[in-house]
Amino acid sequence: MELFLKPDTWLALLTLCFLEIVLGIDNIIFISIVSNKLPEEQRQKARNTGLFLAMFVRIGFLLGITWIIGFKEPLFAVKDIFPDFLIKYFHFHGDHTFSGRDLILGFGGLFLIAKSTMEINHEMEGDGETKEGKKSAVPTLAGTIVQIILLDIIFSFDSILTAVGIVDRDKVIIMIMAVIVSIGVMMFFSGSISRFIQKHPSMEVLALGFLILIGFMLFLESLEIAVPKGYIYFAVAFSLLIEFFNIRVISKRKADPVKLYKPFSEAEAQEALSQKIEEIQYSDDPKYPIGKFVSKENYTQEELQQLIEKIDLFPYQLQAVVENLSEAQLDTPYREGGWTVRQLVHHLSDSHLNAYVRVKWALTEETPTIKAYNQTKWAETPDTRLSVEYPLAMIKSLHRKWVGLLKQLLPDQLKKEYVHPDTGKHTRLDQMTASYAWHGEHHLAHIKSLKKRMNW
To answer: Is 382 buried (19+), middle (13-18) or exposed (0-12) by CB count in 10 A?
Structure first.
């Protein structure tokens, strides 16, 4: 019991548990594939039974390999296998001897280094070849459990050598406890662990890096070069701490802007409109009831967010202002000599469609010259006599895509420009955003002014 009163014991146990779990991820994924071929009601039983029996296999291997490592009697010396000229050329110590323990540690260390390097390469490069699938026999519960046990034997060797590399042989109880804990955790959280490592592959790469470090330490130990294990503990603990902070920071960065980047849902838009206070003062000018648009030289981020919000809410405002109008009212000009309300709604869908395309042009080309359109003639084509439900649906769908794009643009992207072919004027995307926020309110004011004059 005195062993468990030392801090190093608990640190070694925690480190081993972590490495045993991470090193078993490949095992868990493969076990999931094998067990998923069974009927659904047998899958959990197959996984748990296979892992439980595999635990005893690991403990048996652990006891056996630590027993072999205990062989400290010299088996041969360097001078027994290398000629004198090689010993002199490479400055070997001819009298240096190797025991059974040295061979296990040396070859085990090299195995860990080689396997970890190949696994890291696999993570970076992927599979080198694809195997053709073949039709197999119907799997059974017993056959699946045998496959799991055999598979675990293959995956056990590196984890056992890892345990031996971290903890002294006389503390084999710690190794056994780590195996029991790790198998128990894998049985209970097999699905969750697999999803976590797949979501954060850096954790698997980190564990493989530890294996290379441990393998090198084992190789040095086989040459009787002592390396204090405290260095290993510190490296593992420090790296894990940094990686957990890294995962936390990345998750926070991904989580924070989600709401900002998404357009309003129907419910959110209605709630925002219900809290919106009418601030626009209408003039007596029927052509420009809210005044002409005047662009600013620069817009702050807060101003741009407000402008994009206006574009986001516009489809719901437009629908609310025209939904109760009769066919005769829709065919009423909003001012003398002007378009009808129906034409106005169709014009808005056409105009905003062109605006969306201009944004895409500016983002994908270097200061492109856009294609202008004759808005007067567009408002007279036969489709502008159709029901307003079609342009309303188009505007709502278009604005969700348009706003979804605008909310994700960086400040530098909003500075991109396009050129109008008729005027040669350069227009930045932030200025265009302000222009179309005004454009929507401009035509809403036309319809609202008409309804007020006509007492509709």
So the answer is: exposed
Instruction: Round to whole Å and give the CA distance between 206 and 239.
Output: 8
Name the amino acid, one letter, at 418.
Y
- Provide the pairing of β-strand 74-77 with 426-428: unpaired
CA-derived radius of gyration, the chain: 36
Closest CA to 206 of 125, 109, 115, 120: 120
Most confident range, picked from 5-9, 191-195, 236-240, 325-329: 325-329
pTM metric for this prediction = 0.46
Q: With bands split at pLDDT 50, 70 and 90, how would you rate the model's confidence at 428? A: very high
Q: How far apart are CA 356 and CA 406, in angstroms?
A: 10
Give the integer Cα–Cα distance in Å for 70 and 283: 96
146-201: pLDDT as tens digits: 766 765 655 555 556 556 666 555 566 777 777 787 778 777 766 565 556 556 66
Q: Write b or e for each residue in 61-88: b if 16 or more Cβ atoms lie within 10 A of its Cβ, otherwise e.
A: bbeebbeebeeeeeeeebeeeeeeeebe
